[in-house]
Amino acid sequence: MLKVSNLECVRGERSLFKDVNFSLEAGELLQVNGPNGSGKTSLLRMLCGLARPAHGEIRWLGDNIRSLDEDYYNSITYLGHLNGVKDNLNAIENLRISSALAGNGIDESTAYASLQKMGLIGREILPVKVLSQGQRRRVTLARLLVSDTVLWILDEPLVALDTSAVLLVKGILEQHLEKGGMVVMTTHQDINIAAIETKRLQLN
Questions:
Q1: What is the rounded CA–CA span in Å between residue 117 and residue 100?
Q2: Which of 159, 195, 201 is nearest to 46 (CA)?
Q3: Entry pTM
Q4: Cα 161 to the chain's mean position, in Å?
Q5: Average pLDDT, the chain
């Protein structure tokens, strides 16, 4: 279980948010909403251990994530709002490298199949720099198809996607939740994702 208690984020002399509390268990989804500058990305980075809260704590299975190191990081997949792909590498190379860096090495055939499932048939060996923004996002999201982590932390996963891709990602998220996974995500789009429970957090 993920549990967040009395979390506060401060940037400069400004508090972006404070007294944020929530918990998440198997099969549950948390949608984080709020205007630009409200601290959505900062919150997700805190959940990943990439930023420290000004106050409060984040616990995973009862322990503060700061004390868990790899035991926690091996349980999460984080996709930021930027694609994080290398322009001069092709889609297969990007997926294999990102998966290896996450500790989940995959072979070329697995990468190829995952990219095809993401609707990138015929574009698997093209340099990413020639792909559209939506196609580049699909390359990034293909990581979810090869991920074996429990907690997915996703910052605007639907950005730049067309309707068919949004439905595809919706299905991937629902399959993960159905298997007992957990998802924390930000999005400006209205999307109804089936989950044991959907929780919403509004940052102002």
A1: 20
A2: 201
A3: 0.95
A4: 15
A5: 95
Instruction: Please report the pLDDT score of residue 154 as a whole number.
Output: 98
As a whole number of angstroms, the longest Cα–Cα distance in the chain is: 50
Q: 3-state secondary structure string, the chain?
A: CEEEEEEEEEECCEEEEEEEEEEECCCEEEEEECCCCCCHHHHHHHHCCCCCCCEEEEEECCEEHHHCCHHHHCCEEEECCCCCCCCCCEHHHHHHHHHHHCCCCCCHHHHHHHHHHCCCCCCCCCEHHHCCHHHHHHHHHHHHHCCCCCEEEEECCCCCCCHHHHHHHHHHHHHHHHCCCEEEEECCCCCCCCCCEEEEEECC
| pLDDT tens digit sequence for 133-155 | 999 999 999 999 999 999 999 99
Model confidence pLDDT, tens digit, residues 88-102 = 999 999 999 999 988
Extract the tokens encoding 133: 């923004």
CB count within 10 Å of CB 140 equals 21
Measured between alpha carbons, how far is 89 from 71 in angstroms, rounded to an integer? 31
Intra-chain end-to-end CA distance of the chain, in Å? 26
